[in-house]
Write a structure and sequence with these properties.
Number of domains: 1
Distance between the termini: 14 Å
CATH architecture: Orthogonal Bundle
Number of helices: 6
Number of strands: 2
Bound molecules: zinc ion
Largest sheet: 2 strands, antiparallel
Shape: elongated
Mean pLDDT: 90
Helix content: 25-40%
Order of helices and strands: HEHEHHHH
Strand order of the largest sheet: 1-2
Radius of gyration: 17 Å
Structural class: mainly alpha
Oligomer: single chain
């Protein structure tokens, strides 16, 4: 995408990334408003990348629309590390959050450890830009 600036803060870039999955978070699929949009670097930007990779870190092909929750959890993780991080939250919550244990015991939350984490972008093709 030569006409899209390699700058995640540029309005043209933000609009394009926002429209990539029809106004939805590329990870959880939740609908997000343009104002809520957080731009995530699919390939994390601070992982000591080689110079050839650095050139495309801010290319729209590496920028994903994200909700604040997914972006905060993914942080500088790779996609597979992010997937493991999500799976690990169940055990973490069970061990560290007594209220979670109670919700599980009373059947308000069902734990399904076999559930495969499939991200929204893995089930949906990107659309054209948002303009
Ligand atoms: Zn999300």
């Amino acid at each position: 995408m030569a006409d899209i600036p390699k700058d995640p803060t540029h309005p043209k870039t933000r609009k394009y990334v926002y429209g990539k999955y029809g106004g939805r978070c590329a990870y959880c699929g939740e609908e997000i408003s343009y104002k809520e949009l957080v731009i995530d670097h699919f390939e994390p930007k601070n992982r000591g990348m080689k110079s050839t990779r650095n050139k495309r870190i801010n290319d729209v092909s590496n920028l994903m629309p994200s909700c604040n929750t997914c972006n905060a959890l993914k942080a500088n993780l790779t996609i597979e590390q992010f997937r493991e991080q999500i799976k690990g939250k169940v055990e973490y919550s069970f061990v560290n959050w007594p209220s979670f244990k109670v919700l599980v015991k009373y059947g308000l939350i069902n734990i399904n450890p076999g559930v495969e984490i499939v991200f929204h972008y893995e089930k949906n093709q990107p659309e054209h830009g948002g303009f």
